[in-house]
Task: structure prediction
Amino acid sequence: MDVAAAPLFDIVLRNCHVIDPSQNWNGTAAIGIHDGTIAAFAVDLDPALGRRVIDAAGTFVSPGWIDLHGHWYEAGLYGINAELGLNHGVTTAVDAGTAGFANFPAFHDTAITRSRAQILAFVHISCLGLHATFAEELLNLAYARPEETAIILDRFPGATAGVKVRIGSMTASHGNQAFDLALSSARMAKKPLMVHISAGADEKYILRSLRPGDILTHCFHGNQSRMFEAETGDLVPEARAARERGVIFDIGHGCGSFSWGSAQRAFEHDFQPDTISTDLHRYSIEPPWNVTMPEVLSKFLTLGMSLKDVIAKATLAPAKALGRPRIGTLAIGTVADLVQFRLVEGEFLFTDSAQQTRLGAHRIEPILCIRKGIPYHPGDIQRPLRPLYPCDEAIFPPRRA
Ligand SMILES: [Zn+2]
Result:
């Protein structure tokens, strides 16, 4: 046997168009995967080097997508299983505060350490996270626990990313106090704060207070957002100043937080999001929203963003926001998390969270997701969703059999 031709890699992907913003690569390349790691990255590799060879001509490959905002703790009403993302190219699922300090250890032991997807988590400033849709987490400010939240971030540095708070109807009239408590916890832990804005939030106060590296999610929601000047439609000066300081603007599409109108206005004023995320949860995964990462990414192609930029906002940018340069990259020696997809041309109707539609000319369709060197095809992962209850009618009418 010719030793030189013996397979060196478990998988070789060849002839694909690789977009890896972390390495400033946007062109043909081949990738060798071995033992769950990116073992080779070159213009081409000899197919004899692969135990399995994937000829990926006509398709794209990027680092596995990092969904910076979703809900992956199934012991809460919002949570779904993070492995579902492997059907859609998401290799790192970031939990946006589904658990608080009291239930985070259980989230860690039952999901984070067991999931085939990587889960990182923002810990909610409210002790039990997103516990109920009908009596939300900070109607009573006594649930906000800065010190305990910071202790959890210290105890679980590998699994946590920062502190989460939602400001809007869920904080009644004490939104700014709730925000201050969450920010104080993030300061204690020396970690980023992710703040959700929705109707009722004091956006200007929040934007003035956020530090470099803090994340504002639902940046283009359409519910009385005060991110925009009423007269000109331009971003308020506080938003531009926050961007200048290094505050990160995240999408968090969900059921109610992405508006074509807001996004269009922002784009017209040269203000694009830093990161593109789904806010995927028990509700937004269902019709009429049907949120998935590739669908949300495709909407930004429809807004005129380049494919390279869209991919950067789902790989390099969220990795930076998380302070984890070893993910969101295809650099040799990093974990073999990647997605192969095609860019389909046609006429596609995309809806925002208020069911407004826009016609797009391209749709991103995942073909294969590789997480830690293991391949998953769309539909491979089947995880039942929790049953619906009468209280879920607050979000949508249940479709009981
Ligand atoms: Zn959310």
